[in-house]
Automatic annotation (TrEMBL), chain A:
InterPro entries in the record: Histone-fold (IPR009072), TAF11-like (IPR045127), TAFII28_dom (IPR006809)
Residue span, TAFII28-like protein domain: 108-193
Family of this protein: Belongs to the TAF11 family.
Identification of the protein by name: TAF11 RNA polymerase II, TATA box binding protein (TBP)-associated factor
Residue stretches spanning the membrane: none
Native source species: Cyprinus carpio carpio
Domain of life: Eukaryota
Pfam families xrefs: TAFII28
Biased amino acid composition, Basic and acidic residues: 1-16
GO terms for MF: protein heterodimerization activity; RNA polymerase II general transcription initiation factor activity
Key words of the record: Nucleus, Transcription, Transcription regulation
Keyword Cytoplasm listed: no
Positions of the UniProt region annotated as Disordered: 1-38, 59-99
Any single GO CC term annotated in Swiss-Prot or TrEMBL for this entry: transcription factor TFIID complex
Classification of source organism: Eukaryota, Metazoa, Chordata, Craniata, Vertebrata
Automatic annotation (TrEMBL), chain B:
Subcellular compartments: Nucleus
Record field: compositional bias (Acidic residues): 1-16
Gene it is expressed from: LOC109060828
Organism this protein belongs to: Cyprinus carpio
Protein name (Swiss-Prot/TrEMBL): Transcription initiation factor TFIID subunit 13
Keywords for the protein's UniProt record, in alphabetical order: Nucleus, Transcription, Transcription regulation
InterPro entries reported for this sequence: TFIID_TAF13 (IPR003195)
One GO CC term on file: transcription factor TFIID complex
Length: 211, 124
């Protein structure tokens, strides 16, 4: 299966017909980018990247769906049920078009990365928690076995969790005028902030409803 | 970097430092050191993050997983952890929710593709 993290230089070249992309691909990426800028950019990728997880599968299913929808919308006076289905199909088609636009934009962006940015991006996509260790950890807590989907979901969420902490810590670090690498005091302040925003679990305080 | 440890009450159940003489009970082997380092670099930290920071992150992740597991065990089907419970617990956090849905969808598509591929191969 093609690994999206392996950037192919020719993938950045826009398809014929996408006129808007050709102007952006000639933008030079030579300006020096600090790691802090990169982490700010990467923040916005989080959502887009999850779309790009498997380019080939998405594109193939998008192509197949488009073929089906062309046949469905050819009649002149559709019945109410068919009308609903057509609307649903149109929305689906629009969503897939948006996905494809996002994929193309990502490809253009990634093809203009510097060496260091490429490294970091590759680490971002490829790093993951070992499924065996996570499974062992969960099973030691529950005492019974867990399904594979649970392990997949848990490792995915944990990765997002560490991402949130690291990004918050980098914000703290920048705000305090320090430089990376991150120090424990930044991490602790980041956790404190996330907990006050309720983005991080906090079981230190018991919720007492009625005194 | 001993001067960074200025909050001794942070980790109550694990011993402080972690480098140095093994204090026997309570010292868990580091499960995710290598992977966490790569992850921190990917998310914007330096290429060589501090060991203490990696330790703190690992403790946080283990605490997070432990808590999610306990909560998932208490809702839905008691004593078991199921995907639906995790999705329910995460529903308030948009990023994590979206990530879980995407991961599970991708996994389903992958399984379908592999199954179709295997059946095609089996026939020939």
């Amino acid at each position: 299966m093609a690994d999206p993290a392996r950037v192919r230089p020719e993938a950045g070249r826009p398809e014929p017909g996408e006129g808007s992309c050709s102007s952006t691909s000639s933008e030079p990426a030579a300006k020096p980018v600090s790691p802090l800028d990169i982490h700010k950019d990467l923040k916005s990728f989080d959502r887009k990247l999850s779309v790009m997880m498997d380019l080939s599968v998405l594109q193939r299913s998008a192509a197949a769906a488009e073929e089906e929808e062309e046949e469905g919308s050819s009649s002149l006076h559709p019945s109410p049920a068919k009308k609903l289905k057509m609307e649903h199909d149109k929305k689906k088609e629009k969503r897939q078009k948006v996905d494809e636009d996002e994929i193309q934009k990502m490809q253009v962006l990634v093809s203009s990365f510097s060496e260091e940015q490429l490294n970091r991006y590759e680490m971002y996509r490829r790093s993951a928690f070992p499924k065996a260790a996570i499974k062992r950890l969960i099973q030691s807590i529950t005492g019974s076995s867990v399904s594979q989907n649970v392990v997949i979901a848990m490792s995915g969420i944990s990765k997002v969790f560490t991402g949130e902490i690291v990004e918050e810590a980098l914000d703290v670090c920048e705000k305090w005028g320090d430089k990376p690498p991150l120090q424990p005091k930044h991490m602790r302040e980041a956790v404190r902030r996330l907990r006050s925003r309720e983005q991080s679990p906090n079981t230190k305080h018991k919720h007492i409803l009625f005194h | 970097m001993a001067e960074e440890e200025d909050d001794p009450g942070f980790d109550e159940d694990l011993d402080d430092g972690g480098n140095g003489v093994d204090s026997g009970q309570g010292k868990r082997k580091r499960l995710f050191s290598k992977e966490l380092r790569c992850m921190m670099y990917g998310f914007g930290d330096d290429q060589n993050p501090y060991t203490e920071s990696v330790d703190i992150l690992e403790d946080l992740v283990i605490e997070f997983i432990t808590e999610m597991t306990h909560k998932a065990m208490s809702i839905g089907r008691q004593g078991r952890v199921q995907v639906e419970d995790i999705v329910f617990l995460i529903r308030k956090d948009p990023r994590k929710f979206a990530r879980v849905k995407d991961l599970l969808t991708m996994n389903e598509e992958l399984k379908k593709t592999l199954k179709a591929f295997d059946e095609a191969n089996y026939g020939s």
